[in-house]
Specification:
The protein has helices at residues 13-16, 27-34, 55-63, 75-85, 98-109, 125-132, 151-157, 180-189, 215-218, 250-259, 267-277, 280-303, 323-332, 356-369, and strands spanning 42-43, 92-95, 115-119, 136-140, 162-168, 195-199, 226-231, 244-248, 315-319, 335-336, 338-339, 348-352. By secondary structure, it is an alpha/beta fold. Bound molecules: pyridoxal-5'-phosphate.
Length: 370
């Protein structure tokens, strides 16, 4: 009889060593645990768009419900993205969330005997995607004092067996931002045997003065070893549909197309993303709401005497003594934020910018929880 004991030993050591991704606590989970009504809970834990999804995307999704017996066709969305960004269609790959593309590029370039470089406090998916291939993680200390990526130190950490360097800009969970000038210097110094993955999940939240529209994308023609990823999960409000995209040289996209699942993005996500792309009103409202909310939360944190890391996305990482205890008290009162102990930031919490009333509730409950 096979008792199942020892099954874990059948998995390679590099798989057994993985610590699973801890997601933001779902509203339904907190409601069950605390016996709170679902609609009394404020979730500011997963950088979701508090306005929901674009009405145009919702209408397109509803209209597509009758067509789900057919396999998806990615052509129209890739064409629209290529046109929007001035690229060839062969330079774009779609993913089941941009997370899917991070996994794809890791499977293309990494594996046992290879390594990937990333910053401490960088997005948690980079070590996960790296480890899943059997490659080695090289974590580089962040810039002293501000938690940002130390690009010079990351260059120095590159080894002959390194194939990917992961960069999030802005980074989650710190909210730190690298200027285009800094990134450009880095790319020029990057050895050609290394692919730079530039994760721009929060690009659309950058104020125009910092926004990379045109700038980082224009580098694709110069750097065949650059992959830029974006997502429909954040400002576009489609986190639950799972869709993102990657832009790179045709060579990189061709390789990624070999390892991705043939039908990795579903019909509803494709039509929703296509519609959301053109919903300029919704995007502008989302951007404005976020700017005002950032000001509201930052002012509130200052009033409470709490330091924060300057924010460049739709979230703020703030410093608080006894973050674990404060987090527990926030949860008891129905407010979900993100603890950052697993990011080696045990004295910080991360709060997503919500609607004005949600931000107000968060600040009130935070004050009582300190
Ligand atoms: C949210 C996020 C993503 C996007 O995840 P999806 O898989 O597209 O939902 C990617 N990178 C960073 C840094 C993020 O915070």
């Amino acid at each position: 009889m096979n008792t199942g004991i020892g099954i874990a030993a059948l998995a390679p050591q590099h798989i057994r060593a993985i610590a699973p991704y801890p997601p933001g606590k779902p509203i339904t989970a907190l409601a069950r645990e605390m016996g709170l009504p679902v609609d009394s809970i404020v979730k500011l834990a997963s950088n979701e768009n508090p306005l929901g999804m674009s009405p145009k995307a919702l209408a397109a999704t509803q209209a597509a419900l009758g067509g789900l017996s057919r396999y998806p066709d990615q052509y129209e969305l890739i064409q629209a993205l290529a046109e929007r960004h001035g690229l060839d269609m062969v330079q774009i790959a779609l993913g089941n969330g941009s997370n899917d593309l991070l996994d794809c590029v890791a499977r293309v370039f990494l594996g046992p005997g290879r390594s990937a470089v990333f910053s401490r406090h960088a997005f948690a998916v980079y070590p996960l995607a790296t480890q899943a291939t059997g490659a080695e993680c090289i974590e580089v200390a962040a810039r002293a004092g501000d938690y940002g990526h130390d690009l010079e130190a990351m260059l120095l950490a590159i080894r002959p067996d390194t194939r990917i360097v992961w960069i999030a800009n802005p980074n989650n969970p710190t909210g730190t931002f690298l200027s285009h000038a800094q990134l450009r210097v880095f790319l020029e110094a990057l050895p050609p045997h290394v692919v730079a993955v530039l994760d721009e999940a929060y690009n659309e939240y950058l104020p125009p003065a910092l926004a990379s529209e045109g700038a980082t994308l224009s580098w694709l023609s110069e750097f065949p070893n650059l992959l830029i990823t974006r997502t429909f999960s954040k400002v576009y409000g489609l986190a639950g549909l799972r869709i993102g995209y990657g832009m790179a040289s045709a060579e990189i996209i061709d390789l990624m197309n070999r390892v991705r699942q043939p039908f990795n993005v579903n019909n509803l996500a494709l039509v929703a993303a296509r519609a959301a792309l053109d919903d300029h009103l919704f995007l502008a409202e989302s951007f404005e709401l976020n700017q005002r909310g950032l000001e509201q939360i930052v002012a509130g944190l200052k009033r409470l005497g709490l330091g924060h890391i300057p924010a460049h996305g739709n979230f703020v990482a703030f410093h608080v003594a006894d973050a674990a205890g404060v987090n527990q008290r926030l949860l008891k009162q129905g407010v979900i934020v993100r603890p950052l102990a697993n990011y080696a930031m045990p004295d910080h919490l991360r709060v997503t910018i919500g609607l004005e009333r949600e931000n107000t509730r968060f600040l009130e409950v935070l004050e009582k929880s300190l």
